[in-house]
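Researcher: Sequence recovery benchmark, item below. Answer with residues only.
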């Protein structure tokens, strides 16, 4: 499964961005998709996931109420809608795919896309 993340950019605090994670393979619908981020000089951290069937989403506490993950099966795309962005959201964001059952643990994911940079200035 080849993943492509896009949609990053440089914005002011309080702005919104929508990241996309796309895979051309039709089997994409069998994979849960997780979003992770790595801030400058920091460790990779879990952001959220959507389950393979779209019935379940989970978010880390710091983004709850601000970020929303959704998926469009017709387009083989998962979105990370980020609202009310804060400087601490600055990071390289990665999407990853895990067969069926989702996980908050990065080690459980089988495929990773290259990241997209998000920079939030105050």
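Model:
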């Amino acid at each position: 499964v080849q993943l492509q993340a896009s949609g990053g950019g440089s914005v002011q605090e309080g702005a919104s961005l929508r990241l996309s994670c796309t895979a051309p393979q039709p089997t994409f619908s069998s994979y849960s998709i997780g979003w992770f981020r790595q801030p400058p000089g920091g460790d990779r951290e879990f952001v959220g996931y959507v389950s393979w069937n779209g019935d379940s989403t989970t978010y880390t506490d710091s983004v709850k109420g601000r970020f929303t993950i959704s998926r469009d099966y017709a387009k083989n795309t998962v979105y990370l809608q980020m609202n009310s962005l804060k400087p601490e959201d600055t990071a390289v964001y990665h999407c990853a795919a895990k067969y069926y059952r989702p996980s908050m643990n990065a080690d459980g994911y089988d495929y990773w896309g290259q990241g997209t940079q998000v920079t939030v200035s105050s």
